[in-house]
Design brief:
Largest sheet: none
CATH topology of the largest domain: Growth Hormone, Chain: A
Radius of gyration: 20 Å
Strand content: under 5%
Shape: globular
Number of domains: 2
Order of helices and strands: HHHHHHHHHHHHHHH
Number of helices: 15
Number of strands: 0
CATH class of the largest domain: Mainly Alpha
Structural class: mainly alpha
CATH architecture of the largest domain: Up-down Bundle
Length: 385
């Protein structure tokens, strides 16, 4: 590479790092902004819990269906194009969700919303792998930390706008405009293309080898996160004596701990190395599951949720980073495969836990999740740089 091109690339890298962080923030805000809208849409369309649960499957299904195709598109056209186009199309979905007139339109819009989020997810992680490779430092956990912060900000911002008495559509338009301005403002700072093989032909194929193993480990990690989202409040209410109004504090402890763990995760990786970060993190998360489910003292149970968030915080970022470095496979394709398998854990995991809880008890089912995390710890060498 000519010296001038190398110097130009080095000068652009800080801008690319900043842009990557902001795109992760956009993804987190966009996803979380939907949560405060759900009760409004449910009431307006007259949905019961069963109907709502069924239509919400379209959201996760859209993400999973789009990921393999987006991996190919990202490899072919570059991350910047996919992030820019999918990011702007994502912004369109948010206000549409506020005005959907019927259940069918809601399902189609959620499918579209999930597909755009999945597209941004794959492209931004592939872009993050390339930025991390060029910079030479561990950056992926920090990027994912901004996604977690975005999740907290998105839910809080939309809730605040609604609490001020603004109509749902106005709040959704405000969020969409904010995200659109960030995407347009950072577009030119994103790297044009990842790697030097963008013109090669890529075909769909079933995952195998290291890609499959990374995907399975991500499945377990996302399953653990899904367990927190769907079962933490039930655990605290039914087994630890919390009221229905206060049972959400468990997930709040988990979410804040995960965001904090990711924001300091890059420094932890420098100290411990990638393998031990995953090994220790999965072990801490497993212990957290046992403490949260088995401890009879409420503060100890909440400490377990904090440990789960801290322990699990850097596992998925390191898995994605490892997927992007696999030899003989374009980063976007590997990341798309691993992400799709991870989302399968997020979607199916809570149901699997429900079946196990029905056969035994919820604490016992969560103890099984702890055992699965110990298997992740035992397989930590796969993320070695």
């Amino acid at each position: 590479m000519p010296r001038e091109s190398l110097q130009a690339g080095q000068q652009r890298l800080p801008g690319a790092i900043r842009a990557t962080r902001l795109i992760f923030l956009v993804s987190g805000i966009g996803m979380a902004s939907w949560a405060p809208m759900v009760p409004y849409v449910k009431a307006r369309l007259g949905l019961d819990d069963a109907a709502l649960g069924l239509v919400l499957l379209a959201f996760g299904g859209g993400s999973m269906l789009s990921m393999p195709l987006v991996g190919v598109l990202t490899h072919r056209y570059g991350n910047r194009r996919v992030i820019s186009v999918a990011g702007l199309l994502l912004c369109v979905a948010i206000p549409v969700l506020a005005i959907v007139p019927d259940v069918l339109t809601l399902a189609v819009t959620l499918l579209y919303f999930g597909a755009m989020l999945g597209a941004v997810d794959v492209a931004m992680n592939a872009h993050a792998v390339e930025v991390e490779r060029r910079d030479g430092r561990a950056l992926m956990s920090g990027f994912h930390g901004l996604f977690s912060v975005g999740g907290l900000v998105g839910a809080a911002l939309m809730s605040a706008l609604l609490a001020l008495g603004l109509p749902l559509l106005v709040g959704a338009l405000a969020i969409a405009l904010l995200l659109m301005l960030i995407v347009l403002g950072q577009r030119r700072s994103l790297l044009v293309r990842v790697g030097d093989v963008a013109r090669q032909t890529v075909k769909f194929r079933l995952p195998r080898g290291l890609v499959l193993l990374l995907g399975v480990l991500c499945f377990v990690s996302f399953l653990a996160e899904g367990a927190m989202l769907d079962w933490s409040a039930v655990l605290l209410r039914d087994f630890h004596g919390f009221s229905a109004a206060s049972a959400g504090i468990g997930y709040a402890c988990f979410s804040v701990a995960m965001a904090g763990g990711r924001l300091v995760g890059d420094r932890a990786i420098v100290r411990l190395g990638t393998v031990w970060t995953v090994r220790v993190g999965a072990g801490v998360a497993a212990f957290g599951f046992l403490l949260a489910s088995m401890a009879n003292w409420p503060p100890a149970s909440l400490t377990g949720f904090v440990l789960i968030g801290l322990g699990a915080s850097n596992i998925v970022p390191l898995m994605f980073s490892a997927a992007g470095r696999l030899p003989g496979q374009p980063p976007a394709i590997s990341i798309a495969t691993v992400t799709a398998l991870g989302y399968a854990g997020l979607l199916s995991g809570p149901a699997l836990i429900g079946f196990m809880a029905h056969a035994s008890s919820l604490p016992a089912a969560l103890a099984v999740v702890a055992g699965m995390l110990l298997l992740v710890a035992a397989s930590a060498r796969i993320v070695r740089r």
